[in-house]
Hints:
Residues 1-64 form the HIG1 domain. The chain is mainly α.
Amino acid sequence: MATFLSNLVLPVALCAVALVLLLGLINMMRGGSPNRSQKLMRLRVLLQFAAIVVTMLAIWALGR
């Protein structure tokens, strides 16, 4: 389980955070909708929380 979390789930979570951050930056640079920027910011915060949880689970599983 530890290798599954650290080798597959964690990189996917980190890439999801980076992708949403990039989409938000592109939206702001193009002068896009402020509502869309707000939704992307909220999604990024949620994905960051999920990435932290996955990281902590991986560390816990590796320590067992």
